[in-house]
Amino acid sequence: MRTKQIFLLVIVMLLLPPIDAEAQCAMCRAVLESESSGKAAEGINNGIVYLMAIPYVLVAGLFYFIYRKMRA
């Protein structure tokens, strides 16, 4: 029971990215800094974070599936 709680805590911590994550390539940064409103830059940052998170979620799901199969 304790192992299951630790496992769920680790999964939750991995799925909660930092709020102020800013990741951009050099060209995107240069183009978006010239814009005055900043809404496009925020959208690009959110998109990059989501694209980065998808593989981690898929791998975590795969490991959870393997874990469940090994326990059964």
What would your notes on this structure say?
- The protein is mostly helical and 72 residues long.
- The chain has one domain (2-71).
- 76% of the residues lie in helices and 0% in strands.
- It contains 3 helices and no strands.
- The chain is elongated.
- The chain crosses the membrane at residues 47-67.
- Keywords: Membrane, Signal, Transmembrane, Transmembrane helix.
- Residues 1-23 form the signal peptide.
Q: Kindly provide the radius of gyration, computed on alpha-carbon positions and rounded to a whole number of angstroms.
A: 18 Å
Mean pLDDT equals 81
Approximate helicity band: over 70%
Overall morphology: elongated
- Say how many strands there are: 0
Measure the end-to-end span. Answer: 15 Å
* H and E string: HHH
Structural class: mainly alpha
Total of DSSP H or I helical runs spanning 4+ residues: 3
Largest sheet geometry: none
Question: Number of domains in the coordinates?
Answer: 1
- Low-pLDDT segments: none
Proportion of beta-strand residues: under 5%
